TrEMBL record:
Annotated InterPro entries: LysR-type_TF, LysR_HTH_N, LysR_subst-bd, WH-like_DNA-bd_sf, WH_DNA-bd_sf
Record carries keyword Transcription regulation: yes
The entry's keywords: DNA-binding, Transcription, Transcription regulation
Protein name: HTH lysR-type domain-containing protein
GO molecular function terms attached to this record: DNA binding; DNA-binding transcription factor activity
Family: Belongs to the LysR transcriptional regulatory family.
Keyword Nucleotide-binding listed: no
Organism: Streptomyces vietnamensis
Amino acid sequence: MIDIYETEFRKADLNLLVVFAALMRERSVTRAAAALHLSQGATSAALGRLRGLFGDELFTRTRTGVEPTPRAVALARRIEPALGLIHGAMTDRDRFDPATARRTFTLGMSDDLEAVLLPRLLNATAGLPGIRLAVRQASRNTVADMLDRGEIDLGVAAAPAHGPDHRSQDLFPSGYTCLFNPRLLPLRTPLTLDDYLAHPHLLISYDGRRGIVDDILEARGLTRRVVASTTHFAGAALQLATLPALATVPAHAATVYADLLDLTETPPPIPMPAYTVSATWHGSAGDDPAHAWLRGLVGALARGETPDDRSGPPS
């Protein structure tokens, strides 16, 4: 077996795989070069050698950098964990140490979940100078594809749709809450159905036409008056500062918005579904100690816990 390894490894400089990993992470030749302390020319040359080695374009140019091909995404699932194992063997460590590591973690989540989790994550990693967090907008319908394309390391969504190549972990239960500005709408709480239907609403919807509230009301032969719509929960909450209207938002985010904007939160006067927010990742990342640390950290913070040991993966 060693003879086979030697024959194959003679064909390639394994340092090229480090360049490959940086390109996958940074999505830019310029940023990858800076991260690796190489010139842009040397990084471009390494990319050319990688293309020859794997017989694929690997990365195509875009207006903002480079985008991995399907072949590159498939390779990344095998190369990045392997680099982690090699690093562990060279340093005699099989665990991830966030206190000394340099790593960017990309999470996919909607803005309501970002409002809850990102402040906690930033606080928990404030003393870890090499850890960088990036958040990309995602929904339960897009998380799986973003994981498959290597765009995110971890997706957080309400009951995300995923396939057999993905793994998931429940984080916390949630539901829906109504928000309004009590200085503009002096309503009594808990809110009555008559008040709910009598006052204007802000709709949060991807298509801007209807949401789950409209479906529930329609089933009861009722309607509400929607005066505006937005695709972001935070955008709706900000509008309530000057707009006498109601917004029905996820309960986990409602508390954050209410505290920050001095809004009133109250249960909706119609039966709304409960759901579970989950973390989802690609199965190929399961053995990566760094990814295990990230999953543990997100899980602990989602449960409202404060990880005590920042030098190792939370249990």
